[in-house]
What we know:
Layout lengths: L2 H13 L6 E5 L4 E9 L3 E5 L4 E5 L3 E5 L4 H11 L5 H13 L3 H14 L4 H6 L2 E4 L2 E4 H7 L3 E2 L4 E2 L1 H43 L15 E2 L5 E2 L23
Antiparallel strand pairs: 1-2, 1-5, 2-3, 3-4, 6-7, 8-9, 10-11
Amino acid sequence: MGTKVRWHVVVLALAASPLLGDELFLKGGGRVTGEIVGETEETMTVDIGAGNMTVQKSAVVRIERSASPLQQYRAQAAMLAPEDVEGWRNLGRSAEGQGLTMQAREAFTKVKAVLPDDPEANKVLGLVLLDGHWITEKESFTARGFVFFEDEWMMPAEREAILGERQAREEADRQALDAQIAADQAEQAEQEAREEAENDIWTGPLDNLDEIPAYGGNYGYVPTYWPSQPGNLPGSARLPARRRE
């Protein structure tokens, strides 16, 4: 995916965000919403809640400034005392409802600091309750004997079954390949033996033509007598030609 395509994807995703605030309307119909936190001669830096985004001024058609939920969150957070549990809880709920995930976690972290066992705060922070303690999901799986294998939590027996089945398939494939190679080699050896037998030429003396062996196919060279009928010999015997010295 090229840079231009990725840019449009980001812009469309931001345009669908529930955030309202400083809006930068871009050429081509896209827009970036957040809080303008920096500016140079060529670029503008926009805090979109999950981080900063740099926008080229040449791509901006117009800007509409207003207070965004992010700005409102920060203003309210600045007025809350660290021990104001309900104030942070309500602010966290408001941030979560407006898609400010990072800010919601920040607010509920304040709640957990005062109330370590608060169920709502712990769940927002991704913790689970195990044996009376709030721990991470990874810690809970590990404590219960699970292992993480191929992007999934499972019991060790399940993992061993998967590995065993995979190893069995690989061994079967290897044996099948070895058998095929052996069969190919045997066929090649048989073919070479046939060709060698067919090309074998009698080089003995020709003093007595009546006793020159004839080639009898699978029976090799067999005695024959001149003139003999090939049909009387196994495998259609023939009189071989004498190899030139």
